[in-house]
Amino acid sequence: DLYRKVFVFRKDPSDAYVVLRAKLEQPLQNFTVCLSSYTDLTRPHSLFSYATKTQDNEILLFKPKPGEYRFYVGGKFVTFRVPEGRGDWEHVCASWESATGIAEFWLNGKPWPRKGLQRGYTVGATAAILLGQEQDSFGGGFDLYNSFSGELADVYLWDMGLSPDKMRAAYLSLRLPPALLAWKSLSYEVKGDVVVKGRLRE
């Protein structure tokens, strides 16, 4: 249970990462991924990387520079331009549905204009899910200069699109529906220099 805890990625650049284990019974037609990050990086970095054997960027949350997030599904991406962070935690949720190809992006509990991405696509279920590195092959192929350095917390993955109420609940850390990956019951393995620490502040 990682309640009130964070992963601290201590080095920059870093070869460290955290492997997450999700119980996926079937491929995903819809999903939502949420997490919080706290970093002073200005170079590109990966936040959440979900790779299958056929597609290394099956789901990817990537920050190429301050003020921009890229959300990948099946190797294609859309860009969400956001205000540059003021040196605080940033909470992001990204959701996608195959039927419409609608991608939603929420930053700190606020929705951005929706975009279209990979309509009719299906996300594979046999996945390597990593925090802190961007996979260029299944479970590996890292570029150190895309690595994350800083603090990560509140990681969730659902096999559905969350309603606006639930998106806001995720931001406020309120009660949430059962998830494939949930911060309060996370199955994970640390690889390299990552430390689990208490939150410095709420």
Automatic annotation (TrEMBL):
Belongs to the pentraxin family. Residues 3-202 form the Pentraxin (PTX) domain. Pfam families: Pentaxin. One of its GO terms (molecular function) is complement component C1q complex binding. Its main location: secreted. Gene3D superfamilies: 2.60.120.200. The keyword Protein transport does not apply. This is Pentraxin family member. Homopentamer. Pentaxin (or pentraxin) have a discoid arrangement of 5 non-covalently bound subunits. Disulfide bonds join 34-93. It comes from Pitta sordida (Hooded pitta). Binds 2 calcium ions per subunit.
